[in-house]
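User: Is it possible to get a 3D structure for a protein together with its bound compound? The compound here is tryptophanyl-5'AMP. I've pasted both below.
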Amino acid sequence: KTRILTGITTTGSPHLGNYVGAIRPAIEASQNADNLSFYFLANYHALIKCQDPELVHQSTTEIAATWLALGLNTDNVVFYRQSDIPEITELCWTLNCMAAKGLMNRAHAYKAAVAANLDAGEDPDFGVTMGLYSYPVLMAADILMFNANKVPVGKDQIQHVEMARDIAARFNHHYGQHFALPEAVVDDKVAVLQGLDGRKMSKSYGNTIPLFLTEKQLKKHINKIKTNLLEPGEPKDPDTSTVFQIWQAFATEEQTADMRQAFVDGIAWGEAKKQLFELVNGELAEARERYNELMGNPKFIEEKLQEGAEKARSFSAPLMTQCRKAVGIRPIG
Ligand code: TYM
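Assistant: Yes, that's possible. Here is the predicted structure of the complex:
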């Protein structure tokens, strides 16, 4: 079977970008009997960006409830919390000793932090932790631990999957064949969903549309999407519009073609946003109800995660035993 694996960092509430970039394609892939899927909550990754324990915990609950509400079937998916699998952090160290520092120097997240510091006239390493610097190694451990073949992610994560591949190849070259070489899978139509201000939708930009807002709040957020000042009746360019881009991520091809025409015909922004609200709300309404029920039943969520951890460890424990042996860590005699 092809192994599919993906994770979400447990900071903040999941948003439409996470949904179209990772959750929706991952759930679709899990329904294919040729695949074996591993989906998880990256709560150790969360510590890189968030040092508020309550927020990390709350977000872990929300993201778990989100996957379940959106129809993830835990009978055919290994669904777990990163921190429940101690082999991942153990493998992370082992891989740290194989990962080139020069490779980490090129990681986007680290480079962005350095660039922001330089812009602000600060020391380049101001506020940069070793966690941020070596974040791709922890991600490599997540992926390699389960010998994942395909990793469905948004465009921003492609580099990290490539780094995981590099690290795996280096390990295999030195210690023998232990890891499958993973590949990122990106849906081009929605590779980077834009946020309210037209930049990439991201928790760090504060421009997100959270997935499970109330209808009223969802409408409000969609109304806040930045547009130009063109009046009703004036032709609008779909290809530079966030409203159109989000539309495309939720619509059928036919609906997209119709909306493209409506833009050319000068649809009013208010009308386009109203239709976008209806489209997005239509796709999410049922899941929103299930999400609210699940959030009221944390015990059920915890049970699902415990079951998932047990399944995950049936893969990770033997692999880690094999890795330890490969690097020369084994009983004496
Ligand atoms: P994270 O939590 O930032 O995002 C989770 C997933 O959502 C995708 N995504 C987007 N896709 C399209 N448009 C957007 N605006 C958008 N914003 C986010 C991300 O690309 C990602 O697929 N390091 C990872 C989590 C992780 C992981 C892994 C992923 C940890 N270990 C192993 C895959 C495999 C992260 O912070 O994603």
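The pocket of tryptophanyl-5'AMP is lined by residues 5-9, 17-18, 20-22, 42, 45, 139, 142-143, 151, 153-154, 156-157, 192-193, 200-202 (CB under 6 Å). The CA atoms of residues 2 and 35 lie 5 Å apart.
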